[in-house]
Amino acid sequence: MLVDQVKASRMAAMRARNGVTRSILTTLLGELEGMAKRDQVEISDDMVIRTCKKFIIGNIETMKLGGSKDQLETENAILSGFLPKQLSSDELRAIIVKMGIGDMGTIMKQLKAEHEGTYDGKMASEIARDQVELFKNK
Fold this sequence. Notes:
mainly alpha; 2 domains; elongated
C-alpha cells in the first residue's frame, strides 16, 4: 500500500536527518490518519493520492503568494513521488479517441472509472471537448 511507502520514506528521512522530507511526510501522514479516523476507514491508496495532490496544489498557491519557493518546490517533488505516472497528452488523446464516444459526460465518466488519478483533468476535458466536436462533424 502507498501509505506504507510514505511511512518507510519518512523513516528513511528521519535516519538521514532530512528535515524537509521528514516534515512534509509527517504532515501528510497526520492528515491521512486524521481523515481515516474521522471517516472510520483504513487509509487507501486513493486517499494518499488525493491528499498529495491537495498538498501540491496548496503549495503552488502559496508560491504564487510569495511563499518560500525552494522549500515548496522540494515538498512538491517529494509528494509527486507518491503519485501514479501521469498520462501524456498524446496518451490521453489516444485513450479518448479509442473510446469512440461523442458525449462529453460519458467520456469523462469512463475516463475517471478506468484511469482515475493518472491524468490532468483540465487537459482531459479539452481533449474530450475536441473529440466531441470531431464526432459531431462526422
